[in-house]
Automatic annotation (TrEMBL):
Belongs to the LAMTOR5 family. One of its GO terms (biological process) is negative regulation of apoptotic process. Keywords: Cytoplasm, Lysosome. It is found in: Cytoplasm; Lysosome. This is Late endosomal/lysosomal adaptor and MAPK and MTOR activator 5. One of its GO terms (cellular component) is Ragulator complex. It holds the Pfam family LAMTOR5. It comes from the Eukaryota.
Amino acid sequence: MESAVISVMDSLINSEEVKGVLIADEHGLCLGAKGTVNPSSAGFISAIATHAKSLHNDSNIQAPIIKIETEKLTILIQNNGNYTIAVFK
């Protein structure tokens, strides 16, 4: 599993304009972080994604992608069941 997490993070961090990537498990534990990401934010990011996912009851709908924008940064967050991915641009 660890090599899969590293592979996903490497792939995303090498994408254009990506400044950081964070992957957390379903409990908010940081599984990996690269770039300008604070690993201690994993719990908050996981909670945001979990709450957004609970807004609809239809399991056939893809989990929502949350977009947080500031003047300097955009964060894209999505929960995919057992893990949450956040991409910082």
